[in-house]
Amino acid sequence: MRVFVTGATGFIGCALVPELINAGYQVLGLTRSEAGAKSLAAAGAEVHRGSLEDLESLKGGAAKSDAVIHLAFNHDFSNLKQNSEDDRKVIETLGEVPAGSDRPLIITSGTGLVRSKTGAPAVETDDHVSSAEFPRAASEEAAEALIAKGGGRVMVMRLPQVHDTSKQGRITLHIQTARQQGRVAYVGEGKNRLPAVHLSDAVRLYRLALEKGQAGARYHAVAEEGVALRDIAEVIGARLKMPVESITAEEAPKYFGWMAHLAMIDLAASSALTRERLGWRPVGPGLIADLERAHNLEI
User: Fold this and answer.
1) Of all helices (H) and strands (E), which one includes residue 256?
2) N or C terminus: which one in the chain shows less Cβ crowding within 10 Å?
3) Same domain, yes or no: 137 and 169
4) Closest Cα to residue 262, out of 173, 198, 178?
5) Are 215 and 255 contained in the same domain?
6) What is the domain extent for residue 41?
7) What pLDDT was estimated at residue 119?
8) Residues 271-294: what's their mean pLDDT?
9) What confidence tens digit (pLDDT) does each residue in 154-170 have?
10) Domain count, the chain
């Protein structure tokens, strides 16, 4: 089986490509650069030159493949609405190819877009917010539109904070903010939580979804349901040798900027259904363990 992977040279893609190749898949990786092409070739993947802006090129890559894993997204948060709407178009384009077939198409989303109906950690059956509330939800809206039309075996992979010792999802931005502010802050008691998963466990789940996933399913790549923001802040402060302090909700925008709202809400999420349905058992290090050894926290 040949798998077309967008974002093949990104943080997750660089781990997913060898995961798939080692499992016997052929990988066709999207890249726009010569450096990316060399990296993919060195990993044993085929190279598909193109970009997210070139929709015809994306369609061509999907047409040459038996499955698609869509990882790529422009994470420039200063232009989040436009980037999210661009991703909607990308997903619509990728969905045109497998329409009416059983070809897998895995769309990447995030657990941070999901709100629990009960107050407990969000589950796979909980709905995402609308794109009007948070633009990034456009990706799941596009996936749902494909599912409604029977656009192949479409699945949604909701990611939490994906981490290793080099990157930690949104926490990377918390580290940058701390360096800029000269202190590490959390809001109130800091009991609100972020779910997390080690990079190696996340890519293994993508492979399992490719092999066993059901059309229309939502999967949560969650190893830890929730790590408290205060615990995260204390590790960052210890590593950077900076003071750690609680700030009020009113002070949050000045410290966190655009992340202020996210820094105040609890985003815990469960993966119980995902584990049951796909037989996934995460075994990688936890978020705190990786932060304690993180390269980007070296002074």
Assistant:
1) helix 252-256
2) C
3) no
4) 173
5) no
6) 2-162+196-223
7) 83
8) 98
9) 999 999 999 999 999 99
10) 2
